[in-house]
Design brief:
Elements lengths: L3 E3 L2 H22 L11 H15 L17 E2 L11 E2 L4 H16 L3 H16 L9 H6 L13 H19 L3 H19 L11 H12 L2 H13 L6 H4 L47 H18 L2 H17 L31 H17 L3 H17 L15 E2 L1 H5 L20 H10 L2 H4 E3 L3 E4 L5 E4 L5 E6 L7 E8 L3 E6 L7 E5 L2 E3 L5 E3 L2 E6 L3 E7 L3 E4 L11 E6 L2 E6 H4 L6 E3 L6 E3 L2 E9 L34 E10 L11 E2 L2 E2 L1
Parallel strand pairs: 6-10
Antiparallel strand pairs: 1-7, 2-3, 4-23, 5-6, 7-8, 8-9, 9-15, 10-14, 11-12, 11-15, 13-14, 16-17, 17-18, 17-24, 18-22, 18-23, 19-21, 20-21, 21-22
Helix pairs in contact: 1-3, 1-16, 2-4, 3-4, 3-6, 3-16, 6-7, 6-8, 7-9, 8-9, 8-11, 9-11, 11-12, 11-13, 13-14
The chain binds beta-L-arabinofuranose and zinc ion (ZN).
């Protein structure tokens, strides 16, 4: 990131929005200062934990304990529990993610006032750390003798993972060690508890794996990589640690786990802990199952370990899991995890539009996973998925003003249906100011402010450009520098201005939407058969200053979906470049399901909007006609506005359809939306 300065108008504006609006807004939310928003309790918990810690040092202090029952994820304030932990068990992570976003933002744009606020937050966090290095406000406040007794559900290692990622970002941005040292103390404590203590547990919610890999990279201390591998290697071992920690009697251990029977794996005769991806040893996992965020966080950690230690069997498992997602469980918007039940992956091709869960965090996790795979193998399939999730599902998660967010990202919304049906209560037709479970908003903030990390990657000889985002990139003394000039919202022309210092290869991605392109190298056209193309990247040998222009044909296109996706039979979506488009009621009137693209829709693009020729099904009924009865052609006399009538082919009237980018939907009030339209 420190080498990449984004100059792209579109993405720079998003980063500026995060810096100027989202980060200050979220700090208010973490401190429960946003009117009418769900309370966070996050900083409150840290403050209380800090006070308790202080009291612990006073002579004669008697520890006060509050219950931490199993199966309880949310601790709502009661009348007599003013000093207890409030909120979800993973509430600590909200400030860690915020801090991470602050770190990246400071790298892009120094801001002493923001840094001072972050320093204050760090002091509050540090004060909550126990003397032995342990840090989690739920246990620090309620009962520190119960730590690590409920790995399956209580998220202490998940909180550690986010602390670690936040600390590293902040340290890299400011050079200040305080929060990194807090993290190292906690990591050392975890190492001694698990590895030295011989406890074969692993996180119920993954992320510690990839965070520890990052900590290893940052500190050079191998024990953190060892700890990450320890967690990955013990996951899925029998007897399941989640049974062991619950002291489930041996005979009971293979009974069905409620709600998980759907995942019964005949071959392996196992049906438990899919939710946590702990049903099988990770190297045997071939299908992405269970809670989607957990899944992609685990796979990202596995990919890190595979890359850092050259573990081929782990890499193979990652490849299979990635392909399973990309080929069978991925929405066109890059969303994953189609079911609200368990916020989970479901069966192959099960991609409902209106009931889609598609948590913003899951799409972000998919970006982490894809990027790690890309770093092992420069294969365009990884970059394509990464870009799809970024430009669509993730970006849709945040309002244009940065002050409200989607957790769930459906592809079709009818507010009337949502308001009339409790089953759909999880789908929100407009973004929310905050959430009791507020994992997504700060996750979006940290991703957008760290976007510089995803544009290129490099190895000794080659610079790979993945995202076509305008930026200035310092490639160092070994290579030189690169300026990418692009603006995909405008056109598909992407210029690579290379300043050569030493010879290297430049690899340029050919995205799935840009397979038709022209190359002009230093003013001369290059024929396709002269290009060196491997796995969707064109390779150029750079031995002097160069200007390489790729003109990708970028135009609105109609995209079909596999016929195996039941929901989309007879429908298609509209895209332009990486952007998925959608219809909104505000432009097209209500009952979007009555709209259809014409056979020759003549899609035109102007100022970010696509228009097309379409049709609207006539709903005029015979009861609107004379006498109210269908007596035409010797008709049967039925009322045509009855729910059921004799079938008659649809008739249409021509209409203009207006498509807007999916990421921008629901910025003009509550209204119907659909990505897929009849064709
Ligand atoms: O469990 C922590 C976070 O809360 C998960 O990642 C989200 O899916 C939400 O359940
Ligand atoms: Zn989330």
């Amino acid at each position: 990131m420190s080498k990449v300065k984004i100059t792209d108008e579109f993405w720079k504006a998003e980063q500026e929005l995060v810096r100027t609006e989202v980060i200050p807004y979220q700090w208010d939310a973490l401190n429960d200062n946003v009117k009418d928003a769900a309370p966070s309790y996050c900083m409150r918990n840290f403050r209380i934990a800090g006070e308790v810690n202080k009291k612990r040092k006073e002579a004669g202090y008697k520890e006060i304990k509050y219950p931490i029952p199993r199966d309880k994820w949310e601790f709502l304030p009661g009348n007599s529990e003013n000093d207890t932990f409030h909120g979800f068990v993973f509430q600590d992570t909200d400030v860690y993610k915020w801090l991470e976003a602050v770190g990246y933002s400071l790298m892009n744009h120094p801001d002493p006032e923001l840094e001072a606020t972050a320093d204050r937050a760090i002091d509050i966090i540090e004060a909550a750390q126990l003397d032995n290095g342990y840090l989690d406000t739920l246990y620090a406040i309620n009962d520190k003798d119960l730590i690590f007794t409920d790995l399956r559900d209580k998220h202490e290692l998940y909180c550690f993972g986010h602390l670690c990622e936040g600390a590293i970002a902040y340290y890299r941005a400011t050079g200040k060690r305080k929060i990194l040292d807090v993290t190292i103390r906690f990591a050392d404590f975890i190492y001694s508890w698990f590895v030295e203590g011989g406890i074969k547990g692993y996180p119920g919610h993954e992320i510690a794996e990839m965070a520890l890999a990052k900590l290893y990279k940052e500190t050079g201390n191998k024990k953190y990589l060892e700890l990450a591998r320890y967690f990955v290697d013990h996951r899925g071992e029998q007897p399941y640690y989640f049974d062991v920690e619950r002291a489930v009697p041996l005979g009971e251990r293979n009974k069905e786990q409620l709600g998980e029977v759907v995942f019964y794996d005949r071959e392996e005769k196992t049906l438990r802990y899919h939710y946590n991806q702990a049903h099988l040893p990770v190297r045997k996992q071939k299908e992405a199952v269970g809670h989607a965020v957990r899944g992609v966080y685990l796979y990202s950690g596995m990919a890190d370990i595979a890359a850092m230690s050259g573990d081929e069997s782990l890499k193979k498992a990652c490849e299979e899991l990635f392909d399973n997602i990309a080929d069978k469980k991925l929405y066109i918007t890059g969303g994953i995890g189609s079911s609200q039940a368990g916020e989970a992956f479901t069966a192959a091709y099960d991609l409902p539009n209106d009931m889609a869960y598609n948590e913003s965090c899951a799409a972000i996790g998919l970006i982490f996973f894809a990027y790690r795979m890309l770093n092992m193998d420069a294969n365009v399939k990884y970059a394509d998925v990464m870009e799809r999730a970024l430009y669509n599902c993730v970006l849709a998660g945040m309002a244009k003003d940065g002050k409200s967010f989607f957790y769930v990202n459906p592809l079709e919304v009818n507010p009337k249906r949502i308001h009339g049906d409790e089953r759909m209560g999880f789908v929100k037709p407009v973004r929310q100011k905050w959430f009791g479970c507020a994992c997504c908003p700060p996750n979006i903030a940290r991703l957008i402010s760290s976007l510089g990390d995803y544009i290129i990657s490099e190895d000794k000889d080659t610079v790979y450009t993945h995202l076509l985002i305008a930026s200035d990139i310092d490639l160092g003394d070994e290579k030189g520098s690169l300026h990418i000039n692009a603006e995909l919202t405008r056109d598909g022309r992407v210029e690579f201005d290379v300043k050569h210092r030493k010879d290297f290869k430049l690899a340029v991605r050919i995205p799935y939407w840009g397979r038709s392109f022209k190359v002009i190298r230093n003013g001369n056209p290059v024929e396709k058969n002269e290009l060196d193309i491997k796995a969707g990247y064109m390779y150029f040998d750079i031995s002097s200053d160069e200007k390489i222009v790729i003109d990708y044909e970028i135009k609105p296109v109609i995209v079909g979906c596999s016929p195996l996706v039941q929901e989309n039979t007879g429908k298609a979506a509209v895209m332009r470049g990486p952007f998925v488009y959608c219809l909104e009621e505000v432009d097209n009137g209500e009952n979007l399901h009555l709209l259809k693209l014409s056979d020759n829709p003549e899609l035109t693009y102007e100022n970010g909007v696509i228009t097309a020729n379409g049709m609207r099904v006539n709903t005029q009924t015979d009861s609107d006609m004379e006498g109210g009865r269908d007596t035409e052609n010797g008709g049967d006399g039925l009322y045509r506005d009855n729910l059921y009538n004799e079938y008659k082919p649809e008739t249409y009237k021509p209409v203009k359809l207006t498509f807007v980018p999916y990421y921008s939907w629901a910025n003009r009030g509550e209204n119907e939306m659909t990505v897929y339209v009849r064709v």
